[in-house]
Write a structure and sequence with these properties.
The chain contains four helices and twelve strands. By secondary structure, the protein is of the alpha+beta class. It folds into two domains: 56 residues, no CATH class; 117 residues, L,D-transpeptidase catalytic domain-like (Beta Barrel), CATH 2.40.440.10. The strands form three sheets. A five-stranded mixed β-sheet has the order 3-2-1-12-6. A hairpin with a 2-residue loop joins β9 and β10.
């Protein structure tokens, strides 16, 4: 059975893209990518992050919260809202939902530690394109900014902190993050 594109979903996909969220293919279907972009948009706008087009989300798409760049070029990770912002010329180039450090003790694969994403200003010092196997698992196109802590694509990006300390981004967004974020660039992690 072939479903006709939903005009409301198609409009939302275009609007999300205008607002620098990546809804995936703009086809009028509520895809996994569109739902993920909606989760990020909802988190930014103080709406329960369900990834659905409800009345409150539709209103917010018309009048979204303004995003003010905190610096000219760089990355900001907002731990409280679980969002990542990439800025270019003081304006957002990309906004996405993330999952950061779970703030719990772990012992996995012979490594023990406390899962936390460090707060502060850091610089990108290593980038690896494609899949990379780290000590605690696979990462897609990791962009390292402190020790073994990286921004990377993951197949699992829940709506809450769940990582060992890395900043997980949706797998389909990772190539765009990798393309935008350069060596030496500032990564600001704040609560």
């Amino acid at each position: 059975m072939i479903f006709a594109p939903d005009p409301q979903v198609l409009h939302a996909q275009h609007r999300l893209a205008e607002l620098h969220f990546d809804p995936g293919i703009r086809n009028g279907r509520l895809t996994k990518e569109t739902r993920t972009a909606l989760v990020g948009f909802q988190q930014l706008n103080g709406i329960k992050p369900e990834g659905v087009l409800n009345a409150r989300t539709l209103r917010a798409l018309k009048h979204p919260r303004k995003v003010r760049g905190r610096f000219s070029d760089g990355v900001e990770v907002d731990l409280g809202r679980q969002l990542l912002f990439v800025y270019r010329d003081g304006k957002p180039a990309l906004i996405t939902h993330v999952s950061t450090g779970a703030e719990r003790h772990y012992c996995e694969r012979g490594h023990c530690g406390y899962a936390i994403t460090p707060v502060g200003d850091f610089s990108v010092f290593r980038r690896i394109k494609g899949w990379h196997r780290g000590a605690l698992g696979a990462m897609y196109s990791p962009v390292y900014f402190r020790g073994g802590i990286a921004i990377h694509g993951s197949v699992e990006v829940p709506k809450h902190p769940a990582s060992h300390g890395c900043v997980r981004v949706p797998l389909y967004v990772a190539p765009r993050v990798f393309h935008l974020v350069k060596m030496g660039e500032t990564v600001r992690v704040r609560e």
